[in-house]
Amino acid sequence: MVQLGELEAVVMEHIWSLDRAVAVREVLEDLHEGRPLAYTTVMTVMDNLRRKGLLVREKDGRAYRYRAAQPRDQYTAAMMGQVLASSDDPSAALLHFLETIPSENVALLRQALGEQVPGDETDRS
Known about the structure:
Blueprint: H1 6-18, E1 22-23, H2 24-32, H3 39-51, E2 55-60, E3 63-68, H4 72-85, H5 90-100, H6 103-115
Antiparallel strand pairs: 1-3, 2-3
């Protein structure tokens, strides 16, 4: 997984929010409201994201349309997994993480673990 730069993150958030293939021009017009950007800047960022595996592109006439290679939640999960894997003590890292997240997210985690524990084939009924 790759860490995103500021403009890369803005572009990815925008593409994830649209949930469809988009042309560079459309992304430029949507993002241009917040800051002045050149077409070539947005095109370069989107092509870099494609090379990093975060976007896929398809030919549409003479241009390309880009879409996210994976949903935002899968990207987030992969980033969390990468960070956890880089820890010298994953157990301690998880415990510290649990101390910092809001209680509603702890409840979601407990619910998810109750529904499916990876590697656990026992029936929980």
